[in-house]
């Protein structure tokens, strides 16, 4: 039941965001292309321990957020896509980055200085609404991830991760492409081994839930794995 509830929450994102936020108006307000930076696949946008002074907005591409432990073990915190914000901790007084952000595909990232972002949030109501919706959605996602880790099998966790990467609930298409991602990274996100990820990926392919023709594509029918008790 917890899993079904989590999945229903994911589907709420699409309904709220477009009506609350005019992306082009936001880009115009913060300077548009002049404030944007292009990153290649695998390029670091910011590293753990860097000074936190900007909020980032993904115009195109995809970003991996990760944390490195003292013994060198990396944990993937989130995978983000177009329309997502990250690095917002600076708005709450965070002085250094608590993790790293890396482009997982060629990406265009808008960098918004902290002072300008605070001014926009104060002056632009639609911008404030979109940002609040973003933060609430991120909090829900963190709760879901915790429940996922505590109660679900690695197979269900992998299925949910793939659906999130395919941005389930944000698009009407039954089949969505996933940004290029290695099985090792998937294993880090799911909390299992690469061999187990490989086993389940082959199973999902055999059942028609995913397809490797012209890149990895995820069918919404994969949801049945998440909902199955």
Structural features, described:
The protein folds into two domains: 143 residues, Jelly Rolls; 75 residues, Arc Repressor Mutant, subunit A. The protein has eight helices and eleven strands. The strands form three sheets. It has a four-stranded antiparallel beta sheet with strand order 1-8-3-6. A four-stranded antiparallel beta sheet has the order 2-7-4-5. The N and C termini lie close together (9 Å). The N terminus is likely disordered.
SSE arrangement:
Elements lengths: L1 H19 L2 H8 L5 E4 L4 E3 L7 E7 L2 E6 L5 E7 L4 E2 L13 E4 L3 E7 H10 L1 H27 L2 H12 L9 E3 L5 H8 L3 H13 L3 E2 L5 E3 L3 H5 L2
Antiparallel strand pairs: 1-8, 2-7, 3-6, 3-8, 4-5, 4-7, 9-11, 10-11
Helix pairs in contact: 1-4, 3-4, 5-6, 6-7
Q: Any idea what the CATH superfamily of the largest domain is called?
A: Jelly Rolls
CATH class call of the largest domain = Mainly Beta
CATH topology descriptor of the largest domain: Jelly Rolls
Q: What series of H and E elements makes up the topology? A: HHEEEEEEEEHHHEHHEEH
N- to C-terminal separation? 9 Å
What distinguishing features does this structure have?
229 residues; alpha+beta; Jelly Rolls; 4-stranded antiparallel β-sheet; 8 helices; 21% strand; disordered N terminus
Q: Summarize this, please?
A:
With 229 residues, this protein is an alpha+beta fold. The chain contains 8 helices and 11 strands.
């Amino acid at each position: 039941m917890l899993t079904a509830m989590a999945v229903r929450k994911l589907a709420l994102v699409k309904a709220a965001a477009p009506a609350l936020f005019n992306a082009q108006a936001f880009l115009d307000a913060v300077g548009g292309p002049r404030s944007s930076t292009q990153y290649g696949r695998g390029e670091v946008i910011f590293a753990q321990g860097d000074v936190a002074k900007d909020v980032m907005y993904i115009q195109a591409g995809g970003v991996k957020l990760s944390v490195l432990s003292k013994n060198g073990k990396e944990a993937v915190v989130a995978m983000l896509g177009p329309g997502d914000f990250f690095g917002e901790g600076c708005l709450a007084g965070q002085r250094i980055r608590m993790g790293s952000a890396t482009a997982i595909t060629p990406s265009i990232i808008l960098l918004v200085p902290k002072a300008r972002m605070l001014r926009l949030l104060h002056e632009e109501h639609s911008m404030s609404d979109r940002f609040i919706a973003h933060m609430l959605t991120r909090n829900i996602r963190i709760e879901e991830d915790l429940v996922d880790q505590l109660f679900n099998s690695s197979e269900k966790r992998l299925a949910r991760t793939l659906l999130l990467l395919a941005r389930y609930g944000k698009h009407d298409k039954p089949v969505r492409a996933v940004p290029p991602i290695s099985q090792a990274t998937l294993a880090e996100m799911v909390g299992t081994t690469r061999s187990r990820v490989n086993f389940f990926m082959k199973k999902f392919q055999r059942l028609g839930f995913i397809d490797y023709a012209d890149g990895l594509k995820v069918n919404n029918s994969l949801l049945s794995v998440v909902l199955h008790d």
